[in-house]
Every structure is written in C-alpha cells, then in structure tokens.
Design a protein that fits this description.
The complex is a heterodimer of chains A (201) and B (149). By secondary structure, chain A is mainly α. Chain A is built from six helices and no strands. Chain B has 149 residues and is mainly α. The chains are: A mainly alpha (201), B mainly alpha (149). At the A-B interface, helix 1, helix 3, helix 4 and helix 5 of A face helix 1, helix 3 and helix 4 of B.
Chain lengths: 201, 149
Amino acid sequence: MGDVIAEVPPEVVAPPREVAGPIIPVRALPIVAAVIAGLVAAIASNSLWALNFLHVSCGALWTAIDLFMGFVIGPILARMEVPARVALTRRLMPQMLLIMPTLVLVTLTTGWQLARYFGYLVLPYPQHWWLVASYIVVGVMAIVAYGVLEPANISVLLELRRPRPNTLLIGRLMRRFVFTAGVTGIMQVATLVIMTRITTW
Amino acid sequence: MSRPDPAAPEAEVPGAGEPYLGDTSRSPVVGCMLASIVCAFLSVGIIAANLPRPVPLAWSVGFLLASAALLAAALVFLLRRRNFAWRLFFTVARWVLVLTLVFTAMAVYVFVSDGTPATTMAIMAVVLLLTAVDIPVLIGFSVARHERV
C-alpha cells in the first residue's frame, strides 16, 4: 500500500461525528457464505473442474490484488490530496477485510485438494521441495498479514471512525504498508514461479 | 522516539501533552505471539510436507509444545498489563476468532476428508486450534494497545 496517508496534517481530517456500526460490509457476508458453501461442495464432490475453477480464479485474484494494491494503488494514493486519500482508504479497507481472507481460504484449500488429486503430495524429493517452498511462502505471507498488516488496517479503520482521528497515529501505522508491500510482492512473485513450475511438470 | 523498557508490564505514554503516536514500545506480548504462530506453522508445515506418507511426529509435537508455551507466556504478559483497553481487545479478537475458526474448520474438514491418520489429525487439530487462538489475541492486542484508557 505504499506510504498511504503518511504525514497527514492533523487539522485536515476531522469528520463531523463518530461513525457507528460494523466495520465490515455486513451486506456482503451472504456472498462470502455462498463462496464457502461452493468450496465445501467442490471438496465434497471432488470435482476437478470446480476445484480448478476456484483455485485459479481466487488465486489469480489474490495475487493480482496484492500486487495491484502494493505497487499501483499504493503509490497513486500516496500522491493524492489528503482528504481524497482518507476518503478512499475509509471505503476500500472494509471491503478488503472481507475479500482477502475469503480469497486466501478458497485458494489454499483448493490448492491442497488439487495437489492431492494430481498426486503432487507423494512426489519424491527434490521435486517435493517445490511444494514445501509454497508452504513457506504462504507461511511468510500469513505472518506478515497477521503480525503487521491486519492490526494496522483495523487500527486505522477504527481511528478513522472517531470524531477527531489521530492523524499522526494513522500516518505512523500506514507507513507499515511500505514494508508489507515489498515482502508480499516478493512472496507473490515467488508464488507465480512455484505454481507455474508445478503445473508444467 | 523513546522506547520504554520492553520488560515493563505496561507501556507508558511518553510525554503527556505531546502528540500521541500509539504504543511504540517493543511488547513481549507481540514477540511471544509471533513466535507462537511461527512454531504452530512449523508444526503444521512438517505434517503437511509429509502427508500422505507417515509423518515423523516428534518435531511436530515439539513445535506444538513450544507454541503452547509461548501462547501461555504471552497471555501472562497480557494479563499483567495495566490501563489496557480490554473492551476494544475483545471486540476485535471476537471477530477475528470467527474468521480463524472458519479457517480451522475448513482445514480440519479437508484433512479428515482426505483420510489423515487419527494421531496426525489429532496433533494437527490441536495446532490449528492454537493458531485459531493465537491470531485473534495478536490482532486484538496489536489494535487495543494503541487505545488510550
């Protein structure tokens, strides 16, 4: 996310009142439930097409969104006017809190099932190292997400809902995205390398 | 930027009246939670890297125990904190727990449906449950620590 809304002057952002209600867009929860139901159905039926469709579509979205947010939207946001940055962040982040976990859940689960389906899990080493590498990549991304990205996301969203957000705190928290964008970008490129290698054996 | 003693049970807000930049101390809670999550991932990773072949469980059990010990240590550090925004902590942790339980349930469903052996499955289920607790505590703490009470 680049250095989004870093260095925000305190006097610029001051919404008139505290925002109430849930952070995440509750109306989208049925869509998430439907996707998870589809995931369960795909695993239960062991349908190659369904598993492949879910893995490729959700995996592509996950990688593309991560790279797009980190290296395209992030730098653009950093150059925008401060009120515009805050307004976009306030609308974008709640959506991301629902979209990304859903994509990750579907991609990882169907990926494991596809590896089992095609017999990749029983491949001997050194080929098996490619699978182990994919586990390491997922682990690093999860630690970055849970340890840095999500706490900062939620803290910023909560701060933006206050009558007078602490913009210095927001700026400090948002600077973490510089670090996470780099690590996540490298991990996503590694994912592309690993997945394209595995599927061309 | 001044950094209070990391071993202190409570992070002080330096310089009353200065702009508040959140809790900038190096918290042992975060350190223990991250280490616990890493150990849990290693435990699951070792199992996943071997399945469906027989899994050497010693390393997985070792990392599982280390993860549990680190979680316990983190909870002790957390409970020793004074002036902590517990309400915000539980509000955030509760919703993250829902998310992690969905992930855990799906993982257990997949491994059960794949016919994972009972002993391996039991260890994996415990590790996944540990992770399902680790992550909400970590995120809840990381958010609530910046709240001034």
